[in-house]
Amino acid sequence: MKFDTPATNNPIDQLKVVGRPLDRIDGPLKTTGQAPYAYERHDAVRNQAYGFILGSAIAKGRIDAMDTAAARKAPGVLAIVTTLDMPRLEKGPMNTASLFGGPEIQHYHQAIAVVVAESFEQARDAAAAIRVEYVRQPGRFDLAAEAPKAKLVPGDSGEGSGAPPEERVGDFEGAFATAAVKLDATYTTPDESHAMMEPHATIAAWEGDKLTIWTSNQMIAWGKRDLAKTLGIPAENVRLDSPYVGGGFGGKLFLRADAVLAALGAKAARRPVKLTLTRPLVANNTTHRPATIQRIRLGAGRDGKLTAIAHESISGDLEGGQPETAVSQTKLLYAGANRLTSLRLAVLDLPEGNAMRAPGEAPGLMALEVAMDEMAESLGMDPVEFRILNDTQVDPEDSERRFSQRQLVECLRLGAERFGWSRRSATPGQRREGRWMVGMGVAAGFRNNLLMKSAARVRLDGQGVVTVETDMTDIGTGSYTIIAQTAAEMMGVELGQVRVRLGDSSFPASAGSGGQWGANNSTAGVYAACMTLREAVARKLGFNSAEAEFVDGQVRSGNRSVPLGEAAGADGMAAEDQIEYGDLAKRYQQSTFAGHFVEVGVDAATGETRVRRMLAVCAAGRILNPKSARSQVIGAMTMGVGAALMEELAVDKRHGFFVNHDLAGYEVPVHADIPHQEVIFLDEVDPISSPMKAKGVGELGLCGVGAAIANAAYNATGIRVRDYPITLDKMIARLPELA
Amino acid sequence: MESSSHLSLTRRALVAAAAATAGATTPEGADAQPASAGNSSTDAGTPAMTSVSLRVNGELRSLELDTRTTLLDALREHLQLTGSKKGCDHGQCGACTVMVDGRRVYSCLTLAVMHEGDEVTTIEGLGQPETLHPMQAAFVKHDGYQCGYCTPGQICASVAMLEEIKAGVPSHVTADLMASPQLTAEEIRERMSGNICRCGAYSNIVEAITEVAGRQA
Ligand code: FES
Ligand code: FES
């Protein structure tokens, strides 16, 4: 099905099942521990041996020799494969660093060997017995030091955020020079780790030259393609299965070393092999959100209208890598005639930077939306009103191009009202409750809507049970449930009559889970397949498919009514189709919007910032399931608390690695850090997006949260920290004297 | 360019360079050595094995285990009770939380052989999909999870945590150590802070626990 004209009325609009806050259908499995994650598939294949991955202890250089003699003799060892056993393996288009093979080391903890043994304990012990001779080379590990050498490059997160090397509209320099009120400030954001709770894990089994891996991956079709390429085998010989994914946040978008080494280990041991990245490998062996240095210049007239907007970002990555697209939202968020954005990339020898939840916007808004707060203060304006004044309903770089829907103003107004924004003191440092200095902050949230091809197969059996099969993944996003809701709505059955099977590469290829595109596109693919199935059923019954209604488990036309199961017959029926998109995304700018409101307390003695209240008001098209969508948003808000207040991969600039590579050193928010969170979804349908009229929320919820917290901390104390995270050491010296 | 093997690095540089990875990447380092001192055939021979019997979810289970096996791996790998999760294997995340003799423990931080005769309750012992424990049902109702990977640990921890409050065990946020701790959101958040949820379901988890606690009270 090609979607190239805005949606009109369709079966989804009945909203009997779609749009309801239903419990997740996978809830009973997840809460009882019965949902099987990758490392737990004891049932999948017999005789599994254990693999253990060894990571490089240097960041840059090469391996001269590896002595595996002692390890090979260790009890229980079945096979050892080292990186010296083969030339550097090919890599897929998504990876920057190589995953295995050859003597060259590109980053710390790059995989250099896998040991396969009868037990986990034996594999781990033998891995410790491998001796490695390294030749260390000096590397570039300090972004600030390399920044002056950074080159202008284009950027595309692959997740809906991108920008050319430099983009100019009007005359930024001229307008900025003559602006009545100006801001010129630099903000820095640190390297961050996805730190999903389930480390990457894979079980691999060969049957002749056919390989099956049970793994934890967000994008099944990419994984299949890239694993085949890496191993040099035909893609049709590879099958991935990933029905449950213990979190990803972008860290499992791409093929990683676990899958490659499980496959190589299984080949060498002639046994199925299961392995996982140990927690300390996750930070340095895989990808991370790269640090940025962002300069923002804003110019406005005394009336508060922006006349000049510049946002320039520098980040680093390995040779051949990508910039963090932190300036992307600045091209679209506010009006202003004279504009400049640029992206610069420094070469670093740290582990690979890549997409993490809301790549681009998450760090970009942490700068832009603080700059807007600073500018509002310079103008003597309320920060909500300042944003509303500079709203735009068209693409600021192309006034012919409208937003399909843009309710940022409504988000901000409603949020201000519900949050009690009028109680905020415009002058910082005014509100004191015992030892707490209390303040409120606001920020706009912005994230693009991405349209991706997505396919599904829908089966109908003689009992009227509907089964959906697609390689879509559920990484905690609620895919199982919203896909079931979609199929139930389309086929006119109860939710309980629908089965959903996900994550298997033998199913039709979906959009996968990334860039908050999963919900809208994967359900639109199911919509397409259901439409095709409805037509087939109607045809079989001799009904006019345009008139046939699918209601209450029946197919009706005129005064005839046939139970769905009977229509399908004993052999059942099946249909497969996909959603593809025309040029609506070109003709209209499709984005999602939020207003984030936060209240913090800053400890007057220690400078510690604690979040007290949070509200997000989101405008993101039709909300397919308000319960699971709300969870996406509160989860993202929680990650925003981490980004603002605690998360930072500490770089060892001499040896070139992230030091705090575990969950004790890399601090993420815990229960005690998170207050009750409020989320409001504006009533919105976006017929330009898809037949579902939905967009996404999973990343929107993160976009702007960090800035709202930073702005609240400023409002509480009068101290502006532009260097994230806002830890107490950056506050304490500037706090007022204790009385 | 500097050429060196691990072993010729100074101890200081080694620690600085590799933290948990000196000479190898085993996070457990020396702790992972076979606990078989006195067994001269260790290198070429078999690991030190021992038998251990646990009562798991009410059932007596006898296992022959490598002494290095954690309680978590005994459950997940040997008994194939994979409801308990491994998020870190280091006592840093809480995904592996189970109850031993009624008290919550990180099962990755304790060796199975230390639990001879102990009563272990895992998520599987609390309820099944058709017969959910009230806490499991409340997590479903309040959407107190997303990816589900921290969830069994959160649920086991919350069930045991409510018992701790009932028993009068104070926490860091208990203002009056002489009075019984109250069932406030603040107490729940403090006491549940050993269970990380990277999906960020905290706000909903606290609502689920509060509802169950309210019903129990
Ligand atoms: S796995 Fe035991 S605390 Fe993380
Ligand atoms: S539900 Fe994913 S980590 Fe808690």
TrEMBL record, chain A:
SUPFAM superfamilies: CO dehydrogenase molybdoprotein N-domain-like (SSF54665), Molybdenum cofactor-binding domain (SSF56003). Residues 32-138 form the Aldehyde oxidase/xanthine dehydrogenase a/b hammerhead domain. It comes from the Bacteria. Pfam families: Ald_Xan_dh_C, MoCoBD_1, MoCoBD_2. InterPro entries: Ald_Oxase/Xan_DH_a/b, Ald_Oxase/Xan_DH_a/b_sf, Ald_Oxase/xanthine_DH-like, AldOxase/xan_DH_MoCoBD1, AldOxase/xan_DH_MoCoBD2, AldOxase/xan_DH_Mopterin-bd_sf, PaoC-like. SMART domains: Ald_Xan_dh_C. GO terms for molecular function: iron ion binding; oxidoreductase activity. NCBIfam families: peri_hyde_PaoC (NF041671). This is Xanthine dehydrogenase YagR molybdenum-binding subunit. It comes from Belnapia rosea. The lineage of its organism: Bacteria, Pseudomonadati, Pseudomonadota, Alphaproteobacteria, Acetobacterales.
From TrEMBL, chain B:
GO terms for cellular component: periplasmic space. Keywords: 2Fe-2S, Iron, Iron-sulfur, Metal-binding, Oxidoreductase, Periplasm, Signal. CDD domains: fer2. The keyword Transcription regulation does not apply. It catalyses: an aldehyde + A + H2O = a carboxylate + AH2 + H(+). Its EC number is 1.2.99.6. Oxidizes aldehydes to the corresponding carboxylic acids with a preference for aromatic aldehydes. It might play a role in the detoxification of aldehydes to avoid cell damage. PROSITE patterns: 2FE2S_FER_1, 2FE2S_FER_2, TAT. Residues 50-126 form the 2Fe-2S ferredoxin-type domain. Residues 23-32 have a biased composition (Low complexity). It comes from the Bacteria. This is Aldehyde oxidoreductase iron-sulfur-binding subunit PaoA. PANTHER family: ALDEHYDE OXIDOREDUCTASE IRON-SULFUR-BINDING SUBUNIT PAOA, OXIDOREDUCTASE, IRON-SULPHUR BINDING SUBUNIT-RELATED-RELATED. Residues 23-48 are annotated as: Disordered. Residues 36-48 have a biased composition (Polar residues). SUPFAM superfamilies: 2Fe-2S ferredoxin-like, CO dehydrogenase ISP C-domain like. It is an enzyme of class 1 (oxidoreductase). It is found in: Periplasm. Heterotrimer composed of PaoA, PaoB and PaoC. GO terms for molecular function: 2 iron, 2 sulfur cluster binding; carboxylate reductase activity; metal ion binding.
